[in-house]
Amino acid sequence: MAKGESAASLLRELRRRQGHTLRSAASELGVAPSQLSRMERGERPVGEAATQRLSDYYRVPAEVINLATGRVPADIVAILLAHPEELANLRKKFGP
What we know:
Helix content: over 70%
Order of helices and strands: HHHHHHH
CATH topology: 434 Repressor (Amino-terminal Domain)
Low-confidence stretches: none
Largest sheet: none
Radius of gyration: 15 Å
Number of helices: 7
Number of strands: 0
Shape: elongated
């Protein structure tokens, strides 16, 4: 699954799981329904400013949305750069 599709799927699933319609969610988020629809279809990137609003609205950590968009927290990158051997351990433990 591509980055955009992953974030799109996450946003759509969060909205549906919480029982919000596209129009009601967009209204409460302060965006146009077409804008939210494009994010949910992977046609519009989820920017950092939108991430926090989406995080608050769907009550999930912003890092979950960031990871779905391919943005890895800087502290995690620093840890992995300092301990590259952990990449193999993570793949072994959690990989396909």
